[in-house]
Write a structure and sequence with these properties.
With 185 residues, the chain is α+β, with helices and mostly antiparallel strands. The protein folds into two domains: 106 residues, no CATH class; 75 residues, no CATH class.
């Protein structure tokens, strides 16, 4: 639980930080073509900064370093590095704000950035197969949730290694849209 709380805190800080740092003009570049079923974040997760795939991605997307983050605005992504300089998590953006282009690759579990909270819960409730269900786990609903500020609702799906930040402070606002998505390995 401590790991997920840390991630939630980082997401909140990142959202505030990115909002404050978006005065620069950003020109969206075409995202990498999705020629395979593998999403680029899956290729990057768990690899070190020195790995050729990571180094190429950072160079090709003009990523900038801010502490343990690689801000890849043109790709609609933020790479979060662990203490060993490995990609621990990736934040994906729909390109609505914060100076990020829209992430163009596939999202986990056939989700789309245009999905509402209701649609996300419906998809995760019917299309995700888990071999060993967790205690007190309800299909489609998050394992944990938090409202870190008065603007966002954060749904944590531990069993799916995914966190979704919505543009609402309420978990009952089923029409809310996705503001960002964090995926981990």
């Amino acid at each position: 639980m401590n790991k997920y709380f840390k991630i939630l805190c980082v997401l909140t800080v990142m959202a505030s930080f990115l909002s404050a740092c978006t005065s620069q003009s950003v020109h969206a570049q075409p995202a990498m073509a999705d020629t395979t079923a593998t999403a680029i974040y899956d290729v990057l997760l768990g690899k070190s900064l020195g790995d050729q795939d990571v180094a190429d991605f950072i160079a090709n997307n003009n990523c900038s370093t801010v502490e343990q983050f690689q801000l890849c605005r043109s790709a609609g992504m933020v790479l979060m590095m662990d203490a060993n300089q490995k990609v621990e998590s990736v934040i994906l953006y729909p390109g609505k704000d914060d100076g990020f282009a829209a992430y163009q690759g596939p999202l986990p579990y056939d989700l789309r950035f245009t999905d509402t909270m209701e649609m996300v819960e419906e998809k995760l409730g019917h299309s995700v197969k888990i071999d060993v269900p967790l205690a007190n786990w309800v299909l489609g609903l998050p394992d944990e949730s938090i409202t870190p500020d008065h603007m966002h609702y954060v749904a944590v799906y531990k069993r799916l290694n995914m966190t979704i930040v919505y543009n609402t402070p309420s978990g009952s606002d089923k029409g809310a849209s996705i503001q960002s998505m964090l995926v981990t390995k």
